[in-house]
# Entry
Amino acid sequence: MLCYLNGKLVDRTGAVVAVEDRGFVFGDGVYEVWRVVNGRLFEMERHLDRLVFGLRELRIAAPDIVQPDVFTSVAEQLLASGGLQDGEATLYLEITRGVAPRAHAFPAAGTAPTVFMMANRFVPPNEVRTRGAAAITVEDIRWLRCDIKTIQLLPNVLAKQAAAERGAMEAIMVRHGIVTEGSHANVIGVLDGIIRTHPTTNLILPGVTRAVVLDIARRLGIPVSETALQERDLSRLEELFIVGTTGDVMPIVRLNDQPVASGRPGPIARQLYSEFRAHMDACCGVARVA
# Structure
């Protein structure tokens, strides 16, 4: 399979990034992941907008790949090269500050960013969704700019590993008694019939799937409050689910080895997933990447 690296399509097994790339030595970069259905990108513009926001906040010069026409052209070629025009796939784009001698301050103006993109086959976790997943809670030890989708993911990696070691799918992060988000997804709870989720501040990533799901909930007349859950609220939730690019809407039925409500996927999560999936299919039928 091919990948895109700094303006060229190359065989992935032979792709090389310089050892002094700031993404490698500092985690100095941003990334995005798109869901692809039958060769068509879901919410292309929202993801690109978030990527551009991250580049701007980190003061990384935006390369041509963030222009929609350039991005679409490269995406088309990658998906075609991997035979990914049918079924499900993901598209990953990473941009770092580029290659320079290792020094903490930014390199000289004009240093070219490193741009890497790849596409992979993807199988949605529908079997897990049917029965519901397990999660644990962990302390949120990340930095205070979680709204930037950086490649600095070590706290997320440690949280995800902690979950895996306890047989759970996800780790739900708690900062000073407040539920923020998961290791790689936003967190939504249902309390007293109201959807509750952390507001879009610097403490969480403004999830694309989160935004779509909340729009769907409001359209369906389900009460929504962008008010953070307290850790003490978790034991009395009527439903708990995570939302993200690769999980869509995933019910959490066990938390810290205890059942959430009935211990089965709840009606709101099931309805939101059904509507979300229909919306994704409809959108992908319009925004084609052949």
Q: What stands out?
A: Residues 126-282 form a domain with the D-amino Acid Aminotransferase; Chain A, domain 2 fold (CATH 3.20.10.10). Residues 267-284 form the longest helix (18 residues). Residues 136 and 257 are 8 Å apart (CA to CA). The chain has two domains: 2-121, 126-282.
